[in-house]
User: Fold these one by one.
Assistant:
Number 1:
Amino acid sequence: MKPLEGLTILDLSRVLACPFASMILAELGARVIKVEQPRGGDETRSFEPQLARDSAYYFVCNRSKESITVNLRSHEGRLLVRGLAQKADVLVEGKKILAVGPNLHAGGADVIDARGRIVMPGFIDTHHHQFETALRSFLANGLLINDGSGSPSANPTYFEYILLTFAPVYRPEDVYISELFGGLSQLDDGVTTVHDVSQIHHSPEHSDAAIKALFDTGRRAAFGFFESAGANILGTNPGNKYPTDAPRIKSQWFSSSDQLVHMIMGGEVYLGDATTDQSWTIGRQLGLQIAAHILSPFGIRPIFDKLAAGTGGNGRIGIGPDNLFIHMTGMADAAWQKVKDVGAQVSIAFPIEMNMRHGIPPILKLQSLGMEPSLSTDVEVTMTADFFTQMRVCMNMQRMVVNQMVLEQGDFYPPSQWPTPTADKPQLLNVRDVLRFATLNGAKHLRLDGKTGSLTPGKEADIIILDATAINVAPLNNVPGAVVSLMDRTNVETVIVAGRVRKWKGKLLDVDLNHLRRQLESSRDFIFAKAGVLQNLYG
Ligand SMILES: [Zn+2]
């Protein structure tokens, strides 16, 4: 095999130096497409000596190439060349991206033939409770909290069952297998980075099990050190060391910044002012980002008002650029303005917020402030952690609301049944917007944009390869459109994290999924039995 086989080079050069250089690349195995102008082509075609009206000079410099004639003065010609240039190579060395573009010189590199594929940065999930993987789909109809309605959605519910019944009985080994299995599942889906919001820290052993699982998954992660679910409310889990174990955890596991997993401090505000004061103070002393769920119930709005005013916790805690706020449903305008002013980040879980009564995902509020969200899957007890679902639901929800606002400018009678949007209407989200939310925004919100979030030379190689030749996608007419509108996990062919291939041609590497699934099932059986909840497949 020749060293450059598999590379395609678009050659727009003429006369001598560049055609000679690209000829060498062609001789080394690259496919070189030479673009020539109409009416004579490359000037050297007329150079002497001629052999049967062909220039020997031209053929020496352009041998082994393909040639096409394109009129670059025409719109169609420019479109054609732009289309050819959109096919590019990504050169990776070790864990870093060295270059992106057509015509890359790969030397002796291994080549992944991605023709017919879409190569893009991996997805980034900024809020996911992976410890709940053993409880997947248990709460498919459930609300956050029992609302007293007696409806199937009011019982079972998230707060009473997941947080106060199941979570307190978890052992460290339950934490480990749920974290690992949930993480691998998202890796298979092309989600190369997660912020794991683990509220399962009943003891230091539980914390260490969660962290070990994040490392063992082999993807990029922020370990969110949150509370011990149930401890504050039920008085269970007396061995828990939240939040005072944070310095031990940071020095034991996160002394290096050159590793796949880093730490975020959980700073929930509904655990009482004293705990908020303590967790935010410790987090800031350690230089960590501080994340918290901010949502309509649990009396959070007045608490958040105080934090926005700088008088939270025991009176002196305020929000800052180190905050990552999750949901942000139901908050006051002044508090929102403060979030914007201090440069805090907002993660939205569109499907979950719509299903579990958090409130309408605040995308229009963010747009009105000139802010953008990252996306979060939240809980698989109620909804998939698949990222194609995230992007589609985000776009659908926003467009449903804005489209209706525009329609209601008219009265549904001709001639005002299809109004032109007035200037005050929010812009409709498009597929590029939600792709950015799902990748680069996630990286920024986890302070990882120096390492991941885009295919940029110098960043680490978190890359996914999506099959655009598949039956649910072909023919390819719009690259971002195909990813957001058509694709699902079956199209995720290859997943690379920091230069290491974790999924190859549709199969996760280095895992025995049957073995892990049996472990997860036996953990699930233990959790249900210990919690005193009957397993009911059709409940
Ligand atoms: Zn959450």
Number 2:
Amino acid sequence: MARFSVVSLAKNAFSHHENWERQWRSPEPKPHYDVVIVGGGGHGLATAYYLAKEHGITNVAVIEKGWIGGGNTGRNTTIVRSNYLWDESALLYEHSLKLWEGLSQDLNYNVMFSQRGVMNLGHTLGDMRDLQRRAHANRLNGIDCELLDAKGVKDFCPIIKTDNIRYPILGATLQRRAGTARHDAVAWGYARGADERGVDIIQNCEVTGIRRKGGKVEAIETTRGVIRCNKVGLVAAGHSSVLAAMAGIRMPVESHPLQALVSEPVKPIMDTVVMSNTIHAYCSQSDKGELVIGAGIDAHISYAQRGGFHIVEGTLQAICEIFPIFSRMRMMRQWGGIVDVCPDASPILSKTPVEGLYVNCGWGTGGFKATPGSGHVFAHTIARDEPHELNAPFALDRFSSGQLVDEHGAAGVAH
Ligand SMILES: Cc1cc2nc3c(=O)[nH]c(=O)nc-3n(C[C@H](O)[C@H](O)[C@H](O)COP(=O)(O)OP(=O)(O)OC[C@H]3O[C@@H](n4cnc5c(N)ncnc54)[C@H](O)[C@@H]3O)c2cc1C
């Protein structure tokens, strides 16, 4: 596979960029693999990449029912941060953030990781106490976090309106190392890296059944035939419980629509990410100039990649309240993804009661930021048949032991 470099860019510029090599193959499925990953989103592709790179397991297939990155990976608002409350989550997300910091170099693929800072706003005294607690917890875990007052917020993001609004802004936490990345480049970069190491990426192939023998996984049934395998990793986000049910496992996961929208592109006006739990809005500006705005989940359970209009309407009201400067901008596109939400708003990265079957799901509204770290520790779990120390607290048995990792406060925007 040709490497991206100044020389290769210049060479291809002379041939009008018409001679770039394909970034990954489109092979026919083989009859047998050591490991099959179900789901070609960022997490599935990252798992395959690290299986090959770190564990030398290359007889691997990633099976995707649509196109890679067409699920939540290509539908999210790309906020990357690690300022979670509990030690278990903070360490896992910080592991991921550290991998993000070297990801473009590692993959030789520009994932456009931009550490432009993320502010979480506080509008009430209750909010401020909660943010202060999180800031202290983050610092104790070695994670950068600053507490700003209202003036500090305005200095960092001058277009924000802090007072004379329904919920005045009293302050915020700021994680300067946090930011955004280019979502589909992450999927493509991992796909290219995995393919380069021998992984087969099979698109337009839906998994329809999981065969077991004597309590052990034996094969998967797909729309392109039966594929035998020693191990299966389910990394299917909103469809995780559907897939796990194929192996007789009932997952503690609910699937909800989550919507996002982007505006028409404008000149650079906002060079950070702003999130508000209380009035429910989060916003950044993409490198193309579009405002990228995230809404809340629709309360109902659904597998449709769209949601109710009243949800986006409420979000835009909130955005206009803190950014009156945006009030006449036109929204260009709006869409939804299906997010997999656990009762404690934390993920599941775990072995299952079926030997050789592993699950990676429950990332809900906030798993994009975890893509590198999740793939890294899940590959370890599959390769060694035991959890990495960072994902041990996120096993399925926490729902029977009661050792939940409740991140409802930090996981999203009051989702
Ligand atoms: C609107 C929105 C905004 C978000 N904003 C953020 C954010 O700002 N920051 C953040 O960190 N996270 C965010 N998230 C969450 C984040 O997008 C997800 O947690 C993350 O992308 C999940 O990645 P994944 O690889 O597990 O899932 P996906 O990318 O959804 O991949 C799963 C894949 O499995 C495939 N699949 C399903 N069933 C089958 C089957 N039977 N056979 C074969 N393939 C199958 C699907 O087609 C899909 O491609 C947001 C999500 C949404 C929807």
Number 3:
Amino acid sequence: MAPDKVQRPAVTLDPAPHFTDRDAPREIRYIIIHTIEGSARSAIGWFKNPASHVSAHYVIAYDGSITQMVDDQDVAWHAGTREHNDHGIGIEHEGYASQDGWTRKQLVASAALGRWLCATYGIQGDRAHILGHEEIAPGRRSDPGPHFPWDRYLAMIRTGRDPRAEPAPPVAGGAAAPAASRDPVEEALARAQGLEERGDDFRAVEGYRRLLNDHDDHPLAARARERLEAILGDPLRRSRVEAEEVEAECRGWASLAESYIAHRRRASAEDFLRRIRDIYPETPHARKAAARLVGLDELEWETDE
Ligand SMILES: [Zn+2]
């Protein structure tokens, strides 16, 4: 891989205050793969929050947009081990370790970035140097989880191409498409439209976005984009969708926190309760999380993390 042949993908800068400044260039040996356990927006908010004391170099959203939050030459606070913080680049991905939510656009963007990092810093693009957070923090972390497509990702880093060929899109048949057609994109579109017709804009938006993030080049993508713009272009519908997104994220973190409490893992429980309290302070969830945080002192903790 000659560095001059590998293009750096476009990134948006949005600096986080949490990093260790290095006077001299550091030796970069690793790429550490993470999942946020939430939205890209929440990760960016959390890393910028003065109270979080965590960060990563990059955050990659489902739609493939890349936000750089710490300079490559500075040490971001993401790995939990000195060696991997000092010599690693941390990449956070929108989504959940327990879910197979990886989108094509997200993987393409992440691998393009990884390919550029390898070429630029001489990182070896193998599994000894491109690592999951769970591998360097066994027992404490479980990201990026069992659904991360390691072989496909490493092949994309090596070759710059996605080995999983997209199925050829069907000829656009319009309204007369045969009923026997089981095109998964067509089914996904019909599902999202059904949700929209039933008034569930929140899940319809999720469905349209997923279709666009996985199958942007499909003839039906234009229809999904049109419906998405119709919903998000309406201020009332848009604000309801956004409120439900916050609601779902807070509920997810609250339930993660409770499961960490049940497993006596205080630091992780606190992490998710603090995210609720500090990222969405105006919500009723934030008040509950703040109360729960205070209550943690009264619980018994077997071990500290
Ligand atoms: Zn992680």
